[in-house]
TrEMBL record:
Source organism of this protein record: Mytilus edulis (Blue mussel)
UniProt-listed Gene3D superfamilies: 3.30.420.40, Actin, Chain A, domain 4
Official protein name in the record: Heat shock protein 70
Length: 195
């Protein structure tokens, strides 16, 4: 459902999809499902699942087409707290483990632009983390975070950071072993697997 004009339209990018709207939209498109046409795919008795994996929640709805063309809810939409923002929170916790909550708080407050830049960089990086990945994940750390660490802790971030097999500091970049990155996101992934 388009937030701008309350219709399904191809021109609007700001859409809010609802299960019944998805059904209406799909039933007007030329699609195929298992070699069947759209009309066959949405024939009475057909059951289908709608998965909305958004930023904050993952919603699942299972519906069935009734004989009169209406929709019967088989499994009502339920919002699990497993969306992409949970991955962002896991990164925030990871960063806090490295520099401490006092440093992260000061960094967020004093260097909002750099903090948002770091969040944007992670947004791109998190999409490239694959289960079978063996390459280290490299994240550019803003100089201002190192400066806030120095102010709060009284020592430089680089000198206090102990490089090891799982993480290393190279210039202004934090290099993280893929297994370490995956394990920091494991709770989020496990929650998704319980759906």
């Amino acid at each position: 459902m388009c937030n701008n004009c309350d219709n399904m339209c191809d021109n609007c990018t700001n859409r809010k999809l609802h299960p019944s709207t998805v059904h209406t939209y799909l039933s007007t498109r030329t699609l195929s499902s298992g070699g069947r046409s759209t009309l066959d795919a949405f024939a009475p008795g057909t059951q289908y699942l709608i998965l909305d994996a958004g930023g904050g929640t993952v919603d699942i709805t299972v519906q069935e087409i009734k004989d009169d063309g209406d929709i019967k809810q088989i499994y009502m939409a339920n919002g699990g707290d497993w969306g992409g923002t949970k991955v962002d929170e896991a990164f925030d916790e990871f960063l806090t483990e490295i520099v401490g909550s006092d440093t992260v708080d000061k960094f967020r407050k004093d260097d909002k632009v750099d903090y948002l830049g770091l969040c944007r960089e992670f947004e791109v990086k998190k999409r490239s983390i694959r289960p079978d990945s063996t390459a280290k994940i490299t994240i550019r750390i803003p100089l201002s975070l190192s400066e806030r660490f120095q102010e709060v802790k009284g020592v430089s971030l680089k000198s206090s950071f102990k490089s090891n097999k799982s993480m290393s500091w190279v210039g202004d970049k934090l290099r993280v072993d893929p297994d370490t990155a995956k394990s920091s996101l494991k709770n989020h992934a496990n929650a998704l697997l319980t759906i």
